[in-house]
Structure formats: structure tokens, C-alpha cells
């Protein structure tokens, strides 16, 4: 897993034996064991790493008006009950929420207003709730609805 894995040397002296994985990949899922030996004592702990993935089809960049499928999956073993997608959550009145039984959201004709923060939230039969956030970028033009723009002579026009 090198060079994605590191230990904080300065934290080791303070008893912090945390492992950092950056970036996390789907194949990193599983049970991890930390074992610390000091003199005659041996201490260990187990941590299970689960991974949630968000995929775009087609992959980035997303083009205005092309069909977009956003999928959200997790390594969690329980049955998926519901998937909710939140767009620009808590930012303003344009925030939107979509919920379904599957982990996929279809946007038939993405537009510039679809740009921004998206969070998928997976709810499972064992009451576990897992979420991931990503930033969607869409390539296209966000201009006036009319193709004609008037500007006063001597001023700037966008």
C-alpha cells in the first residue's frame, strides 16, 4: 500500500498509533490490526475499514445535456433499504433531495445548476447510515437564455 500509508512519528511518542491511508481505494476494505509491544506488554486493537464509492457514468467531465448516472455503493454487508441524494444541502433555496431504493440517480439532461456538492446517503436494514460527498462539475455554458446580448458602447459585456 506504499506510498498511500503513513504513521505520524510525532504522534507515536504520545501513544497515538493511528494509520493513515490516503487515498482510500475499494480494495482497502477489511479488518486491520494494530499491535504495540512495549517491554513485556503487547496491546492490540482491531478496526474494520468500510468503503463507500461514488461513480459517474460517463466518467468526468460531465457535459451539459448528456445523460448522467450517479451511483453510490458501499462495502456494508446489510441489505440496502434506501438511497438519498442531497444537492447543495443547506446552502440556499435551490437545495434538492432525491430518494430511491437503488443506489443510482439519473439526470437526463444535466445543466449548470446541477454543479456543486452532492451527498449520497445509504440507509441499511441494520439501521446503519453511511454517506459520501463529492463535487460535481459540468462542462457547458451558463449564459443568458437569449443568444443576443446588448451592451452600451464604452462599457464591458460578459
From TrEMBL:
GO terms for molecular function: MHC class II protein binding; protein tyrosine kinase binding. It comes from the Eukaryota. InterPro entries: Ig-like_dom, Ig-like_dom_sf, Ig-like_fold. SUPFAM superfamilies: Immunoglobulin. One of its GO terms (biological process) is T cell activation. One of its GO terms (cellular component) is external side of plasma membrane. Signal peptide: none annotated. Residues 70-131 form the Ig-like domain. This is LAG3 protein. It comes from Certhia familiaris. The gene is Lag3.
Amino acid at each position: 500500500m506504499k506510498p498511500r500509508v503513513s504513521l505520524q512519528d510525532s504522534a507515536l511518542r504520545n501513544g497515538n498509533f493511528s494509520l493513515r491511508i490516503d487515498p482510500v481505494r475499494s480494495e482497502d476494505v477489511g479488518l486491520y490490526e494494530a499491535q504495540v509491544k512495549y517491554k513485556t506488554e503487547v496491546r492490540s486493537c482491531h478496526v474494520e475499514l468500510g468503503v463507500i464509492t461514488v461513480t459517474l457514468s460517463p466518467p468526468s467531465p460531465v457535459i451539459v445535456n448528456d445523460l448522467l448516472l450517479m451511483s453510490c455503493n458501499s462495502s456494508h454487508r446489510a441489505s440496502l433499504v434506501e438511497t438519498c441524494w442531497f444537492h447543495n444541502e443547506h446552502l440556499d433555496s435551490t437545495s434538492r433531495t432525491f430518494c430511491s431504493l437503488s443506489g443510482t440517480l439519473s439526470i437526463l439532461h444535466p445543466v449548470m445548476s446541477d454543479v456543486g456538492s452532492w451527498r449520497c446517503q445509504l440507509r441499511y436494514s441494520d439501521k446503519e447510515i453511511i454517506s459520501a460527498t463529492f463535487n460535481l462539475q459540468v462542462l457547458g455554458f451558463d449564459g443568458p437564455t437569449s443568444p443576443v446580448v446588448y451592451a452600451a458602447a464604452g462599457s464591458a459585456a460578459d
